[in-house]
Write a structure and sequence with these properties.
The complex is a heterodimer of chains A (about 300) and B (about 325).
Chain A (H helix, E strand, L loop, with lengths): L3 H6 L1 H16 L6 H26 L7 H19 L2 H24 L5 H20 L4 E2 L4 H6 L2 E2 L2 E2 H19 L1 H11 L1 H6 L4 H27 L1 E2 L7 H11 L11 H21 L3 H20 L2
Antiparallel strand pairs in A: 1-4, 2-3
Helix pairs in contact in A: 2-13, 3-8, 3-9, 3-11, 3-12, 3-13, 4-5, 4-6, 4-11, 5-11, 8-9, 9-11, 12-13, 13-14
Chain B lengths: L1 H18 L11 E6 L4 H17 L2 E6 L4 H14 L3 E4 L7 H10 L4 E3 L13 E4 L2 H15 L3 E7 L6 H13 L5 E8 L4 H14 L3 E6 L2 H13 L7 E6 L2 H9 L4 E4 L2 H16 L7 E4 L3 E3 L14 H7 L15
Parallel strand pairs in B: 1-2, 1-3, 3-4, 4-5, 5-11, 6-7, 6-8, 8-9, 9-10
Antiparallel strand pairs in B: 10-12
Helix pairs in contact in B: 2-10, 3-4, 5-6, 7-8
Classes of the chains: A mainly alpha (about 300), B alpha/beta (about 325).
């Protein structure tokens, strides 16, 4: 069970505290309520994608197509909204697209003819291409009522995207601990052959886990297109690597069998906080990549030393 | 234990090293955030000129980069507001993601001035827009090629697809080129604004169409790669290249005879003028919500002594501060 003692032992918390204290002293606005709400909103999309990625990594899987799938499913959703004037149909189309391609990734990964890295690298390129072909390069401006429904809405004083992220975080923790598919993810990632011998239907479970990842991607696409009130055929670019980074910084190894979503929360916070604090400190734009990259490397080194 | 201590110290060292470039505004000092789409040369020259101008105007400036990520762009706007910036100057990532940025800035009553991505609905909510019609920008290049090439095959090397800009440039060029029915566009390849990919694209085009006579390369960074490829293949004399930007390395190509014609959109003067307009809005001296055309200049070997260089010196930038501001115009509904 998740406990604060576990997190307390995690050096990631120390890194986060160093950043918070340092930035807070230099620029007190960093600790303002508005900025904290900004950070929560800013990390929500990456957080949602990272939850799905964490579950996949635990099971020994990997999905590099999540960024392209965000772009494609958001675009399909936006296009449906524009053409049918129906928000419901748009959301349905968005999720159908995301889950279908998640499922497809699962089917391909379950064949075990190649490592998921190379399979999803292929689907990443494919999906990005499809997004550009469908859109012909033209973004969709205006996502019906999604902007008002999610993008700028506050619930109990918190941005709706952050509420969605926190809700999914809790649900996925419960899923990994208490639902058979979640527990199988640990078993498959830990020792696939032993899991097979113990009667777990590996292929089915893999397909289900990738489809579930597609569902998380769908939520991320919905939230991102709501926040931006638009759908761009390239809007998801970069999420694939950042979500892997967040999960790994949070303590989920690339080779599976271990990990938890609250650790990933730490990784997501680290990436979001560093980015935010760099901006609030006004560090030279040319130097920002150096700081962010160095902190990421150091954080991963910390995790390795645990 | 020692390893952890070492790593903690390493992180602190990195942060402290980074803090060497920390910029904080003093009380009552105007601070402007310059948000650029990427760290590519176009935006680098723009932000450098704006920083130099800001310094001379006694204004603090912080520069953020969105890395072509609309979500990061919005985060940058939020962070600039949280930091206490008095105004935001922005090169938007795409032609469509500005609404969230405008809403966020409006809510915080922080004027936001866009240097790209014009949108009719957002004009009244913004401090202003300075932009070009992408189609109209590339059209003269097509017209020039139509007038200067008799007949033959033409190819287009585009930037990254999916943001609308490359597609619009291609459309404008085609429109201009259509004035000569003897010129035919045989292929269009995306090189994603990347010099190496442009080199490969040019090689592939020459392989498929060895008799090609014209190339429209959508920026000069890619043109550098294209010119190298054509030189290696011995096709520089045969192929006429037109491009866009007017960057220092583009002017060098024209000087060397490797690039024949370009349309310059100097980010330096545009950013300085945009900064001056934004400051006017912040101080209440200029009415917000107006549109301004961004400066452009068609350049060939005959007029290489350009009016506004990308890499303008501090003295030149100081002179720009005395130039009259561009007049606001009524923009077309769609650029």
């Amino acid at each position: 069970m998740f406990s604060f003692a576990t997190i307390g032992r995690n050096i990631l918390v120390l890194v986060l505290l160093v950043i918070i204290i340092f930035t807070g002293i230099i620029n007190p606005r960093f600790l303002s309520l508005q900025n904290i709400l900004n950070i929560l909103q800013q990390i929500s999309v990456l957080g949602i994608v990272s939850i799905g990625m964490t579950i996949l990594l635990i099971s020994g899987g990997l999905d590099l197509s999540v960024g392209s799938l965000i772009s494609l499913s958001a675009y399909v959703g936006g296009l449906t909204i524009v053409q049918t004037q129906s928000l419901g149909l748009g959301i349905l189309a968005l999720f159908a697209c995301a889950v279908f391609f998640g499922f497809l990734n699962g089917v391909l990964a379950a064949t075990e003819r190649a490592h998921p890295f190379i399979i999803t690298l292929g689907t990443m390129t494919f999906l990005q291409g499809v997004a550009v072909v469908i859109s012909r390069g033209s973004p969709i401006n205006g996502m019906g009522g999604l902007y008002e429904l999610i993008g700028i809405r506050d619930i109990f004083g918190l941005p709706a995207p952050a509420i969605i992220f926190i809700g999914l975080l809790i649900l996925s923790h419960f899923f990994l601990r208490n639902i058979p598919l979640g527990r199988y993810a640990f078993a498959i990632g830990g020792n696939q052959e032993a899991s097979r011998l113990s009667g777990i239907r590996i292929s089915r479970m893999k397909i289900a886990l990738y489809a579930l990842n597609g569902l998380f991607v769908g939520v991320a696409a919905l939230v991102l297109s709501s926040i931006l009130d638009s759908a761009l055929p390239t809007m998801g670019t970069g999420y694939e690597l950042r979500s892997v980074a967040a999960a790994v910084i949070g303590g989920t190894p690339l080779f599976g069998g271990r990990g938890n979503v609250f650790g990933t929360l730490g990784g997501v916070f680290l990436l979001g906080l560093v980015s935010n604090s760099i901006n609030l400190l006004g560090i030279s734009a040319n130097f920002q990549g150096v700081v962010l990259g160095a902190i990421m490397v150091a954080a991963v080194m910390f995790q390795k030393s645990q | 234990m020692f390893r952890r201590l070492f790593l903690t110290l390493l992180i602190l060292a990195i942060i402290i090293a980074g803090s060497g470039s920390i910029v904080l505004a003093e009380e009552n000092e105007i601070e402007i955030a310059f948000i650029r789409a990427t760290g590519e040369p176009y935006y680098q020259y723009g932000s450098q000129a704006a920083e130099a101008a800001a310094k001379k105007l006694g204004v603090k400036m912080v520069v953020y980069t969105s890395n072509l990520d609309s979500a990061q762009e919005l985060a940058n706007v939020q962070d600039a507001i949280a930091r206490g910036c008095d105004g935001i100057l922005i090169y938007a990532v795409s032609l469509s993601s500005e609404r969230a940025a405008v809403d966020t800035a409006s809510k915080a009553k922080v004027p936001i001035f866009f240097q790209s991505g014009y949108h009719t609905d957002l004009l009244p909510l913004s401090a202003g827009f300075m932009d070009n019609s992408l189609k109209e920008f590339s059209k003269p290049l097509g017209i020039w090629m139509a007038e200067n090439l008799e007949k033959g095959k033409v190819a287009v090397i585009e930037g990254a697809l999916g943001r609308g800009d490359s597609e619009a440039y291609t459309e404008g060029f085609k429109e201009g080129l259509s004035q000569n029915p003897n010129l035919e566009i045989v292929t269009t390849i995306s090189a994603e604004w990347n010099r190496q990919k442009a080199y490969e694209a040019a090689t592939n085009i020459i392989t498929a169409h060895p008799d090609i006579v014209g190339l429209f390369v959508q920026n000069e960074d890619m043109t550098v790669g294209v010119a190298s490829a054509l030189e290696r293949l011995g096709k520089l004399e045969q192929v006429t290249i037109v491009s866009q930007n007017g960057a220092p390395y583009g002017l060098d190509l024209i000087r060397e005879g490797k690039l024949q014609y370009t349309n310059a959109n100097p980010p330096s003067i545009a950013s300085v003028m945009a900064l001056r307009i934004l400051l006017g809005v912040v101080k209440g001296e200029i009415e917000p919500g107006h549109f301004y055309w961004a400066p452009t200049q068609l350049i060939s070997k005959e007029n290489l002594d350009v009016t506004y260089r990308w890499d303008a010196s501090e003295e030149e930038i100081e002179q720009w501060l005395d130039l009259p501001l561009p007049e606001p115009v009524i923009p077309p509904p769609i650029l």
